[in-house]
């Protein structure tokens, strides 16, 4: 644990929106009287019909209901585009940086308007209406943002599926939300390699009931050859040439859905996290402004993929609602070289840079040289998101990348929270490497023990949030019961985050990681149950248990214990086959890093797998297995230990 404290740099104390006193005053006001606070803050976006009600929320057992600004009428795309046209129509909205360093594009707000309207008209011509679900499976190209905003303009609900997911995963998501329209590209391009997006969509559609999908809209990216099914598939450029660049923004109630984003939990299939219109946008906009201390004219770059919530809130919706210039990067940090991030920062004069610890750790391994070759003079602020950042990586980021002049904001949040909940504010917060520090306005974190007793002062336990904030998810799409069960049943009347944390004597929060069966691989959430069910779907596998273990770059790696059907030989070849199998079933992010054949798994006498033991073995903590006396067959453990796979 790091004891180091970094003061707010003097220049920040003068340029930032808020200093420490300002933060404390505003925070107290926000939790003392949320109604007044958010009533004022809600005005940061334009409303077609103003709201008269602000907060109407309940975490009560069996009756969870979350509504913000519930009688207001607005449109998210209007707020992200149209309202800027008078003042900044010619300002760049999106800087797109291609996978190939020689490719980039600048899209002004005026151009964004025209492109989004065209895209919306293409959708409208395919009968997409308010409330319809549209699946987006796209590479990081401007059309991905156009597609999202086009849905928002029409009031259709987008479900973006990360381009690394497999046909099976896409199919499950298409069926769950019943989307009849899919938007994709011929191929994606990442690190010089092509990703067969359209082919994956075709394979996904082959797995869903016939007549589920009516239209597939295909954006040309690489020009690679793809199959087009007549009557179903259309090239976007051909369809767009037939429509105008004018399309009215549909009036949306504040609580009308904006998007669904699937995320892994500890049990079952991925959940469709549902976010709505008004509260989400107010929260995304406000957090983007204060956390990144965004000012007019800043160039802001978030390296996430739009397939994750970070891409939704902090590449598209938050920055565009604020009229910012947002960078969208198609490639990867290591291509064509490990200096790519820093070169792009110089090329586009990036002021604010937001990335993930896994990328920082990977780049740190190639040393200071690739960083030092660049100037980074434009950089003012650095951000981190997705997983706990270890103090070593934090220090390197701060010292080498930011040359000690750029504060690092370690932002804690989740797909479910819509926006950042615990974070430093650069002009207000003294930083401690590894700590996400203090709550954002309106957010009331609490630490509870296993029984739900609220802990006071310095303590450690599970992280819950005591009251609603406008960006909170509203439900699990199509399954409100599951929403209540997952997030509100462990600790009644509180939102349970699934994370453990420590609070120090200064009231700073240190997130320690998931306390449920979710592992965080390179900042991507993976449910162990999902990987297990993929493994047992293989004909040679009888049983599987999956746990996380510490991984130098990824944060956590995936460790799979597999019991084979009787008579099946455990060979190296089969091991590789099973890893490939999981990749194919879920996607590359779910590939087990280590896979151990286990003749049997440690179980209690009632047949329950003791994951605690499997976790300890995967973590290399054999000496600390705890009580194994309740095992049906304690000798199983010795066998597991003697065959433990070594870290790569
Ligand atoms: C983890 C990503 C520590 C956490 C925005 C959370 C973090 C999960 C941090 C959500 C952070 C995210 N420090 N842990 N700054 N940010 N996490 O839904 O375990 O993809 O519950 O949202 O990532 O992941 P999700």
TrEMBL record:
SUPFAM superfamilies found in the cross-reference section: Acetyl-CoA synthetase-like
An example GO CC term for this entry is: cytosol
Residue limits of the Acetyl-coenzyme A synthetase N-terminal domain? 23-80
- What processes in GO biological process is this protein linked to? acetyl-CoA biosynthetic process from acetate
Checking Pfam families in the record gives: ACAS_N, AMP-binding, AMP-binding_C
One of the record's GO molecular function terms: metal ion binding
Q: What class of enzyme is it?
A: ligase
Supply the InterPro entries for this chain.
Ac_CoA_lig, ACAS_N, AMP-bd_C, AMP-bd_C_sf, AMP-binding_CS, AMP-dep_synth/lig_dom, ANL_N_sf
Similarity annotation: Belongs to the ATP-dependent AMP-binding enzyme family.
Q: What is the lineage of its organism?
A: Bacteria, Pseudomonadati, Pseudomonadota, Alphaproteobacteria, Hyphomicrobiales
Q: Which residues form the AMP-binding enzyme C-terminal domain?
A: 530-608
For whether the record's keyword set contains Transmembrane, the answer is no
Consult the record and explain the modifications the protein receives after translation. Acetylated. Deacetylation by the SIR2-homolog deacetylase activates the enzyme.
Q: Which Gene3D superfamilies match?
A: 3.30.300.30, N-terminal domain of ligase-like
Q: Which residues bind CoA?
A: 190-193, 310, 522, 583
Q: Gene behind this chain? A: acs
Binding residues for Mg(2+):
536, 538, 541
Q: What does this protein do?
A: Catalyzes the conversion of acetate into acetyl-CoA (AcCoA), an essential intermediate at the junction of anabolic and catabolic pathways. AcsA undergoes a two-step reaction. In the first half reaction, AcsA combines acetate with ATP to form acetyl-adenylate (AcAMP) intermediate. In the second half reaction, it can then transfer the acetyl group from AcAMP to the sulfhydryl group of CoA, forming the product AcCoA.
Q: What is this protein called?
A: Acetyl-coenzyme A synthetase
Keywords from UniProt, A to Z, are:
Acetylation, ATP-binding, Ligase, Magnesium, Metal-binding, Nucleotide-binding
